[in-house]
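Suppose a colleague, Dr. K., hands you the sequence of a protein chain of 396 amino acids and asks what its three-dimensional shape might be. Before reaching for any lab equipment, you can write down a predicted structure in token form. Begin with the sequence itself:
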Amino acid sequence: MILKKQILWLHKWLGLISGIVILIVSLTGCIYVFQDELKLVVYPEKYFISHPTPETKSTIALSKLIAVAEKNLNPGEKISRVDIFPQKNRTWVFRATKTNKKAFFYTDYFTYNKRVFINPYLGTVQQIENTKTEFFQIVLQLHMNLLLGKKYGHLIIGFSTLFFSLICISGFFLWWPKKWKPKNIKQHFSIKFSAKPKRLNYDLHNVLGFYVLPWALLFCFTGLVFAFPVFKKGVNNSLNTLDTKKKNTIVQLDSIPQKTTNTLDNGLFYVLSKHAQADQYSIRLQEEKSEPHDIQVRLDKNRTGNFYRYYFDQKSGQIDSMKTSENLQLGGKITSMNYDLHTGTFGGLTTKFLAFFAALICASLPVTGFIIWLNKSKKERKNNKLKKEAASTLSF
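The predicted structure, expressed as tokens, is then:
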């Protein structure tokens, strides 16, 4: 009984401290689960080519397209990443981003954050987006750092996620029935919609909290991996020790023909021909010549866990190294799937819908929990008032 009181105290105060953050993170998570699909619907003029492209028509060289993109930006703004879609009806997305990691507010966090959408077959710019003010970007930044910048907001989100994981675990102990009798079991597994408001609110908190527990813990675990690099490293190393299967880490690297004078163009041509069936290619551009070109291949739609990643020497154009999800140990595989697990994309639309509803329930828990606390506080104040009145009557 004493232990349960202590668990209840922990559950209550962690909820009161982090409740508003959990509410915001859960609601923004609901929206962001379907951001890939929603963007294509909301912004078709950005992501789809306005005129049909013949199947035989080839794309313009990436280096030339980067020059076109930067020409349409302000002086000093540089393209740092390119997202390439092999579908003939899709534009290529050129990202220009520079951040101030010490900034306190969102308005100061991005020095600039823009996206240039280009028809890669004609080299024409379809749209230029100020991503800093774009709806889904604001939702993402709310989810990641409450619009308070990475230095402070990210830390608040990280510890709130940790608190939520403890709330979930303590909530499970509080939910556990004292006696497993039919009546008790029904009360713990079903919501009595005909009950009075207080009881209905309690059921919504208690019962829905139980059903959403696996997803809530998954959100917490993957959120902590994102928030704390030390935690990610610990998970990676711990799970790797459990993986006893030897991986084939020796990979025969192909020789890359240098058909042009631009090594980035040559590297991309190789990757496109090697992985013609991939869903997306992402290129991270390096300012330093000593750093290799980084080209990531996403094999599955809207998923990051199944990939190849190539590093090309900028001078010679040859492959420095290559990583693939196939050769990762258990820890590496789990952490590389972290985004897929966090957003529910690992099982396609079915798990995305489950993640959406789970996040919606998680958003409701701080609200119903606060109402429970409020009702109990009112009852306690009323009881204390009655006790004082009784005591004063006895004193006469």
